[in-house]
Design a protein that fits this description.
There is one protein chain. The chain is 48% helix and 11% strand. It starts with a helix and ends in a 5-residue tail after the last helix. Helix 4 packs across helix 5. With 144 residues, it is mainly alpha-helical. The chain is globular. The strands form two sheets. A two-stranded antiparallel ribbon has the order 1-2. Strands 3-4 form a two-stranded antiparallel ribbon. It has a domain of 97 residues.
Length: 144
C-alpha cells in the first residue's frame, strides 16, 4: 500500500476524524497535543498525527501501529508536517499519559509486520465509523 492510498482510505478517514472529534471539548475546536494551538476541527490545519509514523523516511511501513489509538493525537499542520510530528514531544506525552509500558508496547508493535488488505481496512473502517458516529451524537459533526 502506498502513502496516498493509505491516507485516502475510508479507514483512515473515519479514524482520523474520530481522533480529532474525540479529543475536542466542544465539537468545533481541538488543541494540538504538541504545541497547544487551538484549531477548528473542520480545517486543513487540523491533523491526526502519529508518534510512530506509518511511513518512515526509508521504505519501512508501520501499519501495525497506524490505527493504535495511543499512537495518534490531534496535531496542527505545523507540528505534524513541518516539524515531522515532533516525535520526542509525542513520546514524552504518551509516556506521561499512558505510562512507559504502553510506549514500550507501541515500540515493540511497530516491529511486527501487518498487511492492510481490503478486508482488514473494511474492519477498521467499520470500527471507527461506529466510534465516529457515537462522537457525532454527543458533539455534533463539524464536517457537514
Amino acid at each position: 500500500m502506498k502513502v496516498k492510498e493509505f491516507y485516502k482510505s475510508t479507514a483512515w478517514l473515519y479514524f482520523s476524524k474520530w481522533v480529532l472529534l474525540s479529543n475536542s471539548q466542544d465539537g468545533q475546536h481541538v488543541r494540538c497535543k504538541t504545541c497547544d494551538r487551538i484549531m477548528d476541527l473542520n480545517s486543513k490545519t487540523s491533523c491526526a498525527g502519529h508518534w510512530i509514523k506509518v511511513f518512515d523516511s526509508g521504505s519501512n511501513t508501520h501499519f501495525s501501529t497506524a490505527f493504535e489509538e495511543h499512537n495518534c493525537w490531534p496535531q496542527c499542520y505545523h507540528c505534524n508536517k513541518i516539524l515531522n510530528g515532533r516525535p520526542d514531544k509525542m513520546e514524552f506525552l504518551i509516556r506521561n499519559e499512558f505510562g512507559d509500558a504502553e510506549a514500550d508496547r507501541l515500540i515493540t508493535l511497530k516491529k511486527q509486520s501487518l498487511k492492510l488488505d481490503k478486508f482488514s481496512l473494511d474492519l477498521i473502517k467499520d470500527k471507527y465509523k461506529t466510534k465516529f458516529i457515537d462522537q457525532v451524537g454527543i458533539k455534533g459533526n463539524p464536517w457537514k
